[in-house]
Design a protein that fits this description.
This protein has 274 residues and is α/β, with parallel strands linked by helices. The chain has a single domain, classed as Rossmann fold (3-Layer(aba) Sandwich). The protein is built from 9 helices and 7 strands. It has a 7-stranded parallel sheet, with helices on both faces. The longest helix is centred in the middle third of the chain and has 27 residues, at 95-121. The mean pLDDT is 96. It binds NADP nicotinamide-adenine-dinucleotide phosphate. Residues 10-11, 13-17, 35-37, 40, 61-63, 80-83, 104, 108, 130, 132, 175, 177-178, 180-183 line the site of NADP nicotinamide-adenine-dinucleotide phosphate.
């Protein structure tokens, strides 16, 4: 596709969302950078203005449908807004936390997407969902987050088929480790460490995440890969914007699911693969 028309980005106040908003504006889209607190977007608008790129900051909280106000002329929707939650075993994670995660990561994304479809149908375009490469890894203590992202994955597969006749492509971006507040906040000993029977596994999770080989990718670099996929009419559904996501996606594509999961199961449980 050509970089023309409006690209609407959710969760653009910081992190991956603000980097995508800037990159899409740089490529030539008119970007609507939406966020819960528009006053946090002043710096973003100023950075875009410096290069003459078109970017406006608008209010949108994906969990509050009354704030969803989408423009005519939309060609791209980037569903980026997301939250992570605590790192508790399923046995102990309160159901309210699951509901909170699903409210933002799935239902919020869904409502914005539903309302975007009539706009996108007018001229074709792209729905770009920012998922997570964690859906490809049987990571303990991230079940609620991973389940919310896996639901986005299934939603994207069906949408891709439904929307193809209208010339609308669907992308599922699978970040591995991108240098954002979310990644920093997530880098602590899992809450599971204090739960009987889970301590050893929680320590392993913490150790593996601190591996220097898993250095996070700058947001700007991830944004370039995401913008490339948006503009590439031949892009596959699933795109990894960083080396860790790419390695996980390649392993997942190359093997059957059980073969991919067994070594990870063995690692996290401290037992040999059976
Ligand atoms: N960083 C990674 O390594 C990584 C890995 C896998 C997947 N991801 C995914 O990438 C996306 C962006 O994450 P990030 O790393 O950039 O995280 P981040 O730095 O924590 O930014 C999250 C963004 O989402 C916004 N947001 C949260 N709840 C919202 C709501 N109800 N309505 C509108 N906006 C909301 C936040 O807005 P406020 O400023 O108002 O809080 C913020 O702009 C997420 O979907 C995340 O799951 C990230």
């Amino acid at each position: 596709m050509q970089a023309e028309g409006i690209a609407f980005v959710t969760g653009a106040s910081r992190g991956i969302g603000s980097a995508i908003a800037l990159e899409l504006a740089r490529r030539g889209f008119e970007v609507w950078a939406s966020m819960r607190e528009p006053e946090h977007g002043a710096g973003l608008a100023a950075r875009a203005a410096l290069t003459g790129a078109k970017l406006r900051v608008v209010h949108l909280d994906v969990t509050r449908p009354e704030t969803i106000d989408l423009p005519d002329g939309m060609r791209v929707l980037v569903n980026n807004a997301g939250i992570e939650g605590s790192q508790l075993p399923v046995e102990h994670a309160p159901i309210e936390e699951w509901r909170t995660l699903f409210e933002t990561n799935l239902f919020g994304l869904l409502e914005v997407t539903r309302r975007s479809i009539p706009k996108l149908r007018a001229g074709g375009g792209v729905v770009c969902n920012v998922g997570s490469a964690s859906v490809l890894v049987p990571m303990p203590f991230f079940a609620a987050y991973r389940a919310s992202k896996a639901a986005v994955s299934a939603l994207g597969e069906s949408l891709r088929t439904e929307l193809a006749p209208f010339g609308i492509r669907v992308l599922e971006i699978l970040p591995g480790a991108i240098d954002t507040d979310m990644l920093v906040r997530s880098d602590h000993a899992p809450e599971a460490v204090g739960r009987a029977g889970y301590t050893e596994m929680a320590e392993r999770v913490h150790r593996v995440r601190r591996n220097p080989a898993l250095a996070p990718t700058p947001t700007e670099q991830a944004a370039v890969a995401i913008a490339d996929a948006i503009l590439n009419d031949g892009a596959p559904l699933r795109v990894a914007p960083d080396p860790m996501g790419a390695a996980l996606l390649a392993a997942w594509r190359a093997q059957d699911d059980e073969a991919t999961m067994r070594p990870m199961l063995a690692f996290f449980t401290g037992r040999e693969a059976g």
